[in-house]
Write a structure and sequence with these properties.
It contains 15 helices and 8 strands. The protein has helices at residues 22-28, 42-45, 48-58, 75-88, 99-112, 119-122, 186-204, 212-234, 239-253, 266-278, 282-297, 302-313, 322-339, 356-362, 380-389; strands at residues 11-14, 33-37, 62-66, 92-97, 134-138, 150-155, 160-165, 173-176. The structure holds 5,6-dihydroxy-NADP and zinc ion.
């Protein structure tokens, strides 16, 4: 196991009616005037925004609103949010929604404290050293932004989707009421579950040896998330299934299951190109990319892929031909994704084969040698090959 420092300062307030405690939480963390950030309407229609405002009023916290966050959130609304927050003298950001809303809130939090163009921080021209505190009322189990150190924004003019990793991104608190997720359409529940699994798998497929404890945590979490996802897409009002997914979302991406391991995240970088160009749900894009990535790389560590097949999907181990076991695991994962209604091919998400070279060329480089991915270092050619595997 590698050395690590792990600090998740987020306070989790989990359970039915938890959103009524939003005001108390903002006040606890020193907020006196909050910017409430929300999405395209679901949180207004469900009455959640009104309940959150009432809670802030009850705690004596003033508030202004920034609505209209779109999935795959754009820089344009972040600029609006920064202006509004400055004008109104906001000292706390309260994001009420899923990953896109939370990430917009986080980006505003950095931007308010930075003198230049906030995109400087996302494209590596400058380093963020200060951000306003952020709190979350989570409405969707997926991105894990409610306690992750990440924030992903798309520059609309160039269709460039990039993440900023910073410990400043960890929210102060996350209010998590699984009932709030019951209004989600099954497709979004499935996309969310796919993203949760992908966050675990990006950590699970490691080259690090002697990581049995985190292997087992990953495997247990994957088994539970797969089971809960199957239930929740059919019965969105199943509290227990939504509860497993919500906590799964959080532990999958705040590194509880990933400490001490080399992590990959190459599939995520490839997917970000798909959701930037075609505006597809992030989880759906991952359903297309991840199995292709697994098929492409499994020969490089066949025993780990076979272990995944046996322990997560209950496949029988073929000791003479472990590659057969590894393949069964990938097929089982694809069958699961199909069952919950996810796409598996580029065509199903409207992606064009002729775009593959440009998608590969635009994918973020994450290693000094010009490659992408922490475990399996991929050249542009590797990325093209993976996308061609998904072009079925
Ligand atoms: O805008 P509204 O009307 O609220 O509708 C949203 C949106 O259309 C809807 N929704 C959310 N909660 C709902 C609901 N509809 C009904 N009832 C509810 N309770 O769901 C749709 C998708 O929302 P979005 O926030 O986009 O989903 P998700 O949580 O999957 O976030 C995706 C974004 O997060 C990024 C992704 O790249 C993508 O941009 N990620 C962020 C990460 C992070 N910050 O740590 C890590 C991830 O890997 C990911 O990259
Ligand atoms: Zn993700």
């Amino acid at each position: 196991m590698r050395d690590f420092v792990h600090c998740v300062p987020t306070r989790f307030v989990f359970g039915r009616g938890a959103e009524q405690r939003a005001g108390e939480q903002v006040r606890d963390f020193g907020g006196t005037k909050a910017l409430i950030v929300y999405g395209g309407g679901s949180a207004v229609r469900s009455g959640l925004i009104d309940r959150v405002k009432a809670s802030l009023d009850g705690a004596g916290v003033a508030h202004v609103c920034l609505g209209g966050v779109k999935p795959n959130p754009r820089d344009t609304l972040v600029y609006e949010g920064i202006d509004l927050a400055r004008r109104e003298g906001v000292d706390f950001i309260l994001a009420v929604g899923g990953g896109s809303v939370i990430d917009t809130g986080k980006a505003v939090a950095h931007g308010v404290c930075y003198d230049g163009d906030f995109w400087d921080l996302w494209c590596g021209r400058a380093k963020s050293v200060r951000a306003l505190p952020v709190g979350v009322v989570l409405t969707m189990a997926a991105a894990g932004s409610e306690s992750s150190n990440s924030c992903v924004i798309t520059q609309e003019s160039t269709k460039t989707k990039r993440g900023l990793r910073s410990e400043l991104n960890r929210p102060r608190f996350a209010i998590m009421n699984p009932e709030l997720a019951m209004t989600l359409p099954p497709y979004q529940i499935a996309s969310g579950a796919t993203d949760i699994l992908a966050h675990i798998m990006e950590r699970y497929f490691t080259c690090e040896k002697e990581v049995d404890l985190t292997d087992r945590l990953c495997e247990g979490a994957m088994v539970a998330v797969i089971r809960a996802a199957r239930i929740a897409v059919k019965h969105p009002d199943d509290y227990d299934a939504q509860a497993q997914l919500m906590w799964g979302s959080t532990i999958a991406h705040n590194d509880t299951v990933g400490v001490g391991r080399v992590q990959d995240f190459g599939s995520h970088q490839i997917e970000h190109e798909l959701s930037a160009l075609y505006d597809v749900a992030h989880g759906a894009g991952l359903a297309v990319v991840f199995p292709a990535w697994m098929r492409y790389h499994m020969d490089k560590d066949v025993m780990r892929f076979a272990q995944f097949a046996v322990r997560v999907y209950g496949c029988e181990m073929n000791f003479e031909h472990p590659e057969q076991t590894a393949l069964r695991g990938i097929e089982a994962h694809e069958a699961f994704l199909r069952d919950i209604g996810m796409p598996l091919t580029l065509k199903e998400i409207g992606a064009r084969a002729e775009d593959i070279p440009a998608l590969a060329a635009h994918t973020k480089v994450t290693n000094p040698d010009g490659t992408t991915g922490g475990v399996f270092h991929m050249t542009r050619e590797d990325i093209e090959n993976i996308l061609r595997l998904a072009d079925r």
